[in-house]
Q: What sequence folds into this?
């Protein structure tokens, strides 16, 4: 089974290949709970990615709320359990 960290690293390598800006969000007392794992700027668009492992990865209600807030603000936000999901989302949102 692929770990969440491996998936995240694959996504970050892909973002690097596009020349995208991205930052990994680490949960702490200084970061709002539920913030997606990766915040990115890709071809001028704000993208937030919550990374989950393919089996057993559960999106919390707070994470769902943050994704909804980002979308409502005009950003692109989604849950990815693999690089294929990221590529599909990027194509759907005309980022690639």
A:
């Amino acid at each position: 089974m692929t770990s969440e960290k491996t998936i995240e690293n694959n996504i970050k390598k892909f973002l690097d290949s596009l020349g995208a800006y991205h930052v990994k969000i680490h949960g702490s007392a200084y970061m709002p709970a539920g913030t997606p794992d990766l915040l990115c700027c890709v071809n001028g668009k704000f993208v937030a990615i919550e990374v989950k492992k393919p089996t057993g990865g559960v999106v919390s209600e707070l994470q769902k709320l943050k994704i909804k807030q980002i979308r409502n603000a005009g950003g692109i936000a989604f849950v990815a359990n693999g690089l294929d999901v990221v590529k599909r989302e990027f194509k759907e949102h005309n980022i690639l």
Helices lie at 4-17, 61-72, 83-92. The first helix runs from residue 4 to 17. Strands lie at 21-24, 38-42, 45-51, 76-80.
